[in-house]
Amino acid sequence: MGTSVLQPAVIRLVAGFLSLSGFGVEGYTYHFQNECRFNSHSLEGIEFIERRIFNKLEYLRYNSTLGKFIGYTEFGVYNADRFNNDSSVLAGYKSNVDAVCKPNAQIDYDTILDKSVKPTVTVKATKPDGSSHEYMLVCSALGFFPRKIKVTWLRNGVEVKSGVTSTEEMSNGNWYYQIHSHWEMTPQSGETYACKVQHKSVSDQPIIVQWDPSMPESDRNKIIIGVSAIVLGLVIAVAGLIYYKKKSTGRILVPSS
Ligand SMILES: *[C@@H]1O[C@H](CO)[C@@H](O)[C@H](O)[C@H]1NC(C)=O
Ligand SMILES: *[C@@H]1O[C@H](CO)[C@@H](O)[C@H](O)[C@H]1NC(C)=O
Asked: Does position 214 have pLDDT exceeding 50, yes or no?
């Protein structure tokens, strides 16, 4: 289970070109955008697209599957006809499939797309506002790649459907993703609860994090804060003592002239 749902989606490689004529917000933009579109290792049907865009309007597109240009404005249609009439232009564009797209897609699979990074999974309990339930459990999966992931809740090992909501997979902006799943629930004695995470990085061994209502989060936090305060107090006391000793014994005062 798990791996079959983890196929990468269509990847767009943007090798854009941007030029500005004029300055600041008054300028115009004209850009070419090249894309290699593919969704399988076989690179079967990999497609090279070039879009020519003035400001935000795409007026001309080359599509390697069609093997020709399509115009979207009068100027675009004029140029599409011109380029489509020239077999050397068409041959040159078509050659990008083998010369540019295939080698780059292979590099992408080798260096990024076939790699995966395991999420860190935690379960926290909070008290929901205005809910008939005692707890809102939050299962957070952090720092994973690729994006595709499945987070479910288990009661006595059986998947829970009701009272569960989830965020989207959110991009951290650094290739990694995070997701948070919420479950509003009231514990019953004798039951077990867990969050289950399925991801490419752990293939058929889902990550399962148990939650035990016998020790609510708030108590655990109080203990951690208490212990931290004691440790911090000791560190300051020891540092103060060392400083005092050094100052009173180690200093030789040199009188200034
Ligand atoms: C390119 O053309 C093919 C065949 O008509 C079409 O299926 C595909 O969606 C087109 N791709 C783009 C990006 O327009
Ligand atoms: C297409 O090419 C032919 C011959 O090379 C030329 O006579 C004709 O004007 C061209 N058509 C367009 C739309 O450029």
From this structure: yes
Q: Ligand 2: which atom is nearest the Cα of residue 82?
A: 14
Cα distance between residue 248 and residue 230, in whole Å: 27
Find where tokens 């987070």 sit: 151
Q: Is the pLDDT of residue 77 over 60?
A: yes
User: Same domain, yes or no, for 130 and 92?
Assistant: no
* Domain membership of residue 161 as a residue range: 120-216
Integer CA distances (angstroms), 229 to 117, 216, 219, 220, 239, in order: 35, 20, 15, 14, 15
52/70 Cα distance (integer angstroms)? 11
Residue 10 CB–ligand 1 contact under 6 Å = no
Rounded to the nearest 5°, which phi and psi values hold at 172? -80, -5
Ligand that lies nearest to the alpha carbon of residue 45, given by its number in the listed order: 1
Residue 124 lies inside a defined structural domain of this protein: yes
Q: Which ligand is nearest to the CA of 37?
A: 1
Per the omega criterion (within 30 degrees of 0), is the bond before 146 cis?
A: yes
pTM: 0.60
Residues 89 and 162 occupy one common structural domain: no
CA distance 7 to 58: 30
Q: What is the pLDDT of residues 24-38, one digit of tens each?
A: 566 788 999 999 999
State the distance from the centre of ligand 2 to the C-alpha of 209, rounded, in angstroms.
69
How confident is the model at residue 3, as a pLDDT?
A: 35
